Amino acid sequence: MIELTNIRKGFPGNSRAIDNLSFTVPDGKIVGFLGPNGAGKSTTIKMITGILPIDEGSITLNGYNINHHPIEAKKLFGYVPDQPDMFLRLRGIEYLNFIGDIYEVPEQLRQQRIEKLTKQFQIDKSLHDYILNYSHGMRQKIIISGVLLHEPAIWILDEPLTGLDPKSAYVLKDLMRQHADKGNTVFFSSHGLEVVEQICDVVAIINNGELLFYGDMDQLHKEYQTDQSLENVFLELTNDE
């Protein structure tokens, strides 16, 4: 579970990038995080993961405050950033073993998971190549494989489907569903509104750092008295032309 309580964050020239943001990402649910460019999605995710400091408020992950107990909190989640261009000078297998070492995944179990994940994402033949030479989609797949390697209870995914081929996107969506169905937490941002509508149990929509809506699709339709698609409601809520 991820709990955000009265979160505020400002930057020079923007005193309220995030303004009094509160919501809960419950166990057993896939929560889609939506908003136009500059709405505050990535800033929120970076505060949840401890990359950015919080100006006001608190964020807890399965009861651990990200500010007060950062090590304990960070052991609980796997994070896919919006840009997969990391560890480029490592070979794919070196990166996965590095992640396995950090999270103390036993050798035999590690090899089983690496084999399974990389075959699912069709990068098993490229593990001895440098990540620098991977395509964008392959970099995304190796980062995702690393995130899932230690089987964290909480998945935090920032635009995880970007660059994935249709088969790999299907695999990831299926893994997300399985993970949530086991009582775990999946929180992901996406610009793909059809995907969010298809797989998410709950939707959180923000704009200008403020929460505009939080609930399931039935609540969305009831609150706005419409049977329109998520795309149409999203555009109306965010005043997109």
UniProtKB/TrEMBL annotation:
Designated name of the protein: ABC-type transporter ATP-binding protein EcsA
SUPFAM superfamilies assigned to the protein according to its UniProt record, in alphabetical order: P-loop containing nucleoside triphosphate hydrolases
Top-level taxon of origin: Bacteria
CDD domains: ABC_DR_subfamily_A (cd03230)
GO MF term set: ATP binding; ATP hydrolysis activity
Residues forming coiled coils: none
Residue stretches making up the ABC transporter domain: 2-233
Gene: ecsA_3
InterPro entries documented for this protein: AAA+_ATPase (IPR003593), ABC_transporter-like_ATP-bd (IPR003439), ABC_transporter-like_CS (IPR017871), ABC_Transporter_VariousFunc (IPR051782), P-loop_NTPase (IPR027417)
Keyword terms: ATP-binding, Nucleotide-binding, Transport
